[in-house]
Amino acid sequence: MQALETLLARLESLVGRAESLLPQPATPPDWRAATAFRWRVAQGRGRLEAVRHPQRIQLEDLLGVAGQKATIVRNTRQFIARRPANNVLLTGARGTGKSSLVKAVLAEFAPRGLRLIEVDRNDLVGLPEIIDLIADRPERFIVFCDDLSFEAAEPGYKALKSALDGSIAGPPENLLIYATSNRRHLMPERMAENLETTHTADGEIHPGETTEEKISLSERFGLWLSFYPFDQELYLDICVHWLQRFGVSEKSALAGRQEALQWALQRGGRSGRIAWQFARDFAGRQKCS
Question: What is the pTM assigned to this prediction?
Answer without folding.
Answer: 0.80
